[in-house]
Amino acid sequence: MKLFIPDIAYIDPKILKYPAGEKVIEYLESLNIPIVNSKKVVIDCETPEENYAMAKKTVLFTTNGQKKLVSCRPSADYQFSLSSSCPANCEYCYLQTTQGEKPFMKIFLNMDEILEVIQSYIDKNMPNITSFECASITDPIALEHLSGNLKRCIEYFGESSNGRLRLVTKFDDVDPFLKLKHNKHTKFRFTLNSRYVINNFEHNTSSFYERIEAVKKIACAGYPIGFIIAPIMIYDNWKEEYKELFDTLKIALQGYKGEISFELIQHRFTKAAKELIVQRFKNTALNLNEENRQLKWGPYGKFKYVYKKLDSEDMNNYISKLINSNFNRAIIEYFT
Ligand code: SF4
């Protein structure tokens, strides 16, 4: 898929004191991207939909001052961010409600400080291994060519005795990572889904086959690999289509001898997310009917609608069976 090129880039003056700042500006200029020297992003369109669309083409280069990392269970011990938001428009995105009306992207350029915070958490937990997720509020692959942050991060973890990195993406631009000294300390996961879900709800992401090609390259480069199958949805033909997904994946990974992890996440939504989704995607075909769902208390202090118990058990059993029958060395890490 083509690289994401923002319509406009804001430069927080703070980044000019970091070596990466100058490089980024040169790169943006070479791409003819208009630059505004301000940390105040102005997006003021007539409708919320226009604000959303414009935000998804706007990037602010700034710094990340987060010193206290939060837990990222069940995926990793902690999460940190090299960027926030992403250029895709997934209709079900769980960030719909957390990133406000204008989810413009931020890319953080104070890598030394970010890595210092990470190191302090690794040190505190010695001699145990500490794992970190860097994709919980962003898609780091989609934005990588604008900063080179992730490459540096993967090399840092490659040299770390007790730190491990995990990331997940729906994008296929993985060539910059193939020759890095990762030492198997970074796990690359790809989010996959059935044809129906990708084609109808994951706008501006890499296609299923582009992602599969990227998986093959990353596996060949020796990285540990995994898949997040999410959000799993029930619709007409869902069983046939998820079967097709795992059949295709099996063929693509023929000859791959390593372990493959799977994380399974059923579709869920909150009341607030539903309101935003129907406003942003007026003709959405997402099934947001509360009557077919049950409420579950979420870790962020909000109720969410998940599938009813019998449906979610059926989903978990069916998908787990498909995985176990297709992959000898599969590990299903969780279903939620
Ligand atoms: S790629 Fe991920 S973060 Fe970006 S819109 Fe889709 S679900 Fe949200």
Automatic annotation (TrEMBL):
<dbReference type="InterPro" id="IPR007197">
    <property type="entry name" value="rSAM"/>
</dbReference>
<dbReference type="GO" id="GO:0003913">
    <property type="term" value="F:DNA photolyase activity"/>
</dbReference>
<dbReference type="GO" id="GO:1904047">
    <property type="term" value="F:S-adenosyl-L-methionine binding"/>
</dbReference>
<dbReference type="GO" id="GO:0042601">
    <property type="term" value="C:endospore-forming forespore"/>
</dbReference>
<keyword id="KW-0456">Lyase</keyword>
<dbReference type="InterPro" id="IPR058240">
    <property type="entry name" value="rSAM_sf"/>
</dbReference>
<dbReference type="InterPro" id="IPR034559">
    <property type="entry name" value="SPL_Clostridia"/>
</dbReference>
<dbReference type="Pfam" id="PF20903">
    <property type="entry name" value="SPL"/>
</dbReference>
<protein>
    <submittedName>
        <fullName>Spore photoproduct lyase</fullName>
    </submittedName>
</protein>
<dbReference type="InterPro" id="IPR049539">
    <property type="entry name" value="SPL"/>
</dbReference>
<dbReference type="GO" id="GO:0051539">
    <property type="term" value="F:4 iron, 4 sulfur cluster binding"/>
</dbReference>
<dbReference type="InterPro" id="IPR023897">
    <property type="entry name" value="SPL_firmicutes"/>
</dbReference>
